[in-house]
Each structure stands twice: as C-alpha cells, then as structure tokens.
C-alpha cells in the first residue's frame, strides 16, 4: 500500500501592511504548493476583516498601546502545506516575517477521503 501524502492547512492573520511579506516568507518555505500534475504554487485564500486585541501591561505591541483595546483591519490567509517538515518551516518563516509579538496562526491536519 502506498503511503499517503500528509497535508496541513496553515491559517494566519496579519495586518494588511504585512500580508505580502508574510505570504512571501511562507511560500519560500514551501507552503501553498498543490501536489500533482498541475504544479500550482503560491496558492492561498485571503479574506479581510477586523481583528481586535488589548495588549497587557508587559506587552510590546507593534500596533496600539498597552491596556488600550485596538481594532485593526487584518487579512486571514489560508494555505496548504504538504508534509510536516514544510509545515514547520512555513510556521517558522511566518513567525520571522510577522510584525506582531505573537502572531495569530493555526495548523490543521487534513484528511483525504
């Protein structure tokens, strides 16, 4: 029996001014590539919405001030990562490229039916 390709979905949020740099970083790490004959690269889904946060007293926020509720227009970016190694590299690249102290991101293991 042939081994299945393990796929993950990486989802992150970033202020609009940082989205292109974050996407470039994760794509350079191998994210956004769809396996198969089509050979698609740099694939993602982007939606724009409003994020909010209140930095704590010890925070060093990129946007806003400690103790003040902040609302920021952000993008939600969703992309495919093929294999655990690519996923880990993409998350590492995202953390380096993202301007926030603690970037908001999630990784979901995908099932193939």
TrEMBL record:
Superkingdom in the source lineage: Eukaryota
InterPro entries assigned to the protein according to its UniProt record, in alphabetical order: DUF34/NIF3_sf, N-reg_PII/ATP_PRibTrfase_C
Signal peptide: none
PANTHER family assigned: NGG1P INTERACTING FACTOR NIF3 (PTHR41774:SF1), PTHR41774
Protein name in UniProt: ATP phosphoribosyltransferase
Organism whose genome encodes this protein: Cercophora newfieldiana
């Amino acid at each position: 029996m042939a081994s299945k390709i393990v796929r993950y979905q990486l989802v992150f949020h970033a202020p609009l001014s940082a989205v292109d740099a974050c996407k470039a970083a994760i794509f350079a790490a191998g994210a956004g590539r769809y396996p198969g004959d089509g050979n698609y690269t740099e694939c993602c889904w982007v939606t724009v919405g409003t994020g909010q946060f209140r930095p704590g007293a010890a925070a060093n926020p990129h946007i806003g001030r400690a103790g003040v509720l902040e609302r920021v227009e952000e993008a939600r970016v969703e992309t495919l990562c093929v294999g655990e190694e690519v996923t880990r590299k993409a998350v590492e690249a995202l953390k380096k490229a993202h301007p926030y102290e603690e970037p908001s991101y999630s990784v979901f293991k995908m099932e193939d039916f």
